[in-house]
Amino acid sequence: MWQAAVAQLCEQGGIPGAVVAVGGGGEVADRAVYGVCDLGSGTPVTSKTAFGVASVSKSFTAAAIMQLAASGALSLDQPVKDHIPEIVDLPVLHGADVRVRDLLSHVAGLPPLATRFSVLSGGGDAQAPRRPDWVADAPARISSRAHLFEYWRSLREVEPLGVPGDVFSYSNEGYVLLGILVERLSGMRLADYVQTRIFAPLGMTRSAYNRSSYVAADAWAVYHTAQTGDPSASGCVRAPARYYEPLWHSAGGVHATADDLVRYLRLYESSGSEHGERVLSSDDAQQMLTPNTESTLPGVEYGAGFWVGYVDGERFVYHGGSGKGISAYVCLFPDSGRSCAVVANVSGARVEQMAATAMRGHFGVDISEVHKAWRARLPGGAVRPDYRGVFRSDEGVSLSINGDEVIVSGDPAQVTSADPSGLVIRSRRGDDFIGYPTAFKPGAAVTFGGRVLRNVG
User: Fold this and answer.
1) Residue closest to 346 by CA, chosen among 326, 322, 321, 323
2) How far are the Cα atoms of 14, 19, 223, 234, 320 from residue 226, in angstroms, in the given order?
């Protein structure tokens, strides 16, 4: 049974608690439930336990934007400045030219910024993310739109990655702007909007942005974090005080059960079926799954809130989430309705591997094929000399490339394959791809983890 294999992955990975659900048509066909909500109390996880889902939240924000577009409140090709005039004078992007569609697809030209260090409260947690000393100063806390724009205006030395539409770089800040759009056009808080317009109609009764919605001990999985960044090597500690400021909810604030996420994925099946009342038209839902741009991974593109690829010739969409004691992953074959949702209460859990185990065991399909364009490359090749150096982003990620030796934010990695488009590396976190973006002069930047990292010497 695949559930035993998932439990083994959890045990090997030092994961406190997790749930994996597989299904189709919005119905859960089978699940695996593992571990505890809280290492302190030992309360068991159940199928009704909600977990943070981090960046899986982005598709909910994108769905809200699609609803507003369908109502006539905005157009996807409309300049964002029409509703958020504050972006016009921001040095970090060409604000006058950014369209709503550019934000949805991460091609607005926004570079990775240090905003996340100011919207994630550590609450005294010793393992909370810390801003590296080479990252530009950021406020200790950003809790309002005015403060956010004030901070971005101060970044006079941070240049945009390019004109809107030219460069893909995954951007939490872009989805923060989309959240502001939802609130300004609807007159509602994003959390209230999604609760009434998406969660409730889809029957997602265990989903919320506000953790205080969960009262019972097994209703919410407490955040945990690895003491050294690797739960399998060092064990975990509780991090219950962490939370995102509401301003950041549109980029990563949802809590949900795995069952609720399977219900949600029904929205994107090609049949256009709905649960209760229609939330999105079939055309709008499919538009979110239509690639708008090439991403930084060979063979994978990005729509609106979902990565898009192919497995055995069938369209396959997915999105992961990680941070603040959270790991999550959702995936769907829109044309056949096969879906999976994985949630875990520690950062760094190998949730994609858990989903692959469940999908292989239940449906007999290998979803890892979506990455075969780069993972299946033949060993060998040489790193291009002009791409040796140190590459960084203000999100705190650093790459040092020196021949076949690569250091990823302090962790060693080995180059296993290289060709003119980039290189595949292997580290304790698994295999990753480092790309050579054609929009920049050779050696000026690389792509990693969906982001553009610039050469700093």
Assistant:
1) 326
2) 9, 19, 11, 6, 19
Reading the block at residue 58, the tokens are 């982005």
CATH code, 146? 3.40.710.10
Range of the domain at 441: 381-455
Q: Which residues contact 97 (CB under 8 A, 6 or more apart)?
A: 79, 163, 164
- Give the angle 122-59-246 at the CA atoms, nearest 5°: 35
Return the ∠ at Cα 85 (arms to 146 and 70), rounded to 5°: 110
Same domain, yes or no, for 336 and 428?
Answer: no
Do the beta carbons of residue 451 and residue 169 sit within 8 Å?
yes
Query: Which tokens hold the place of 434?
Result: 């480092």
Does residue 155 sit in the same domain as residue 35? yes
Is 255 in a helix, a strand, or coil?
A: strand
| Mean pLDDT, residues 318-345 | 95
pLDDT digits (tens, 9 = 90+) for 21-71: 999 888 999 999 999 999 989 999 999 999 999 999 999 999 999 999 999
Of the candidates 9, 63, 18, 36, the residue with the CA atom closest to the CA atom of residue 329 = 18
Encode pLDDT of 420-437 as tens digits: 999 999 988 889 999 999
Number of domains in the chain: 2
- The verdict on pTM exceeding 0.90 is yes
Angle, CA 149 vertex, CA 147 and CA 153 arms, to 5°:
115
For residue 60, what pLDDT is reported? Answer: 98
How many angstroms separate the Cα of 391 from the Cα of each of 73, 386, 403, 429? 41, 12, 14, 19
Q: Are residues 356 and 401 in the same domain?
A: no
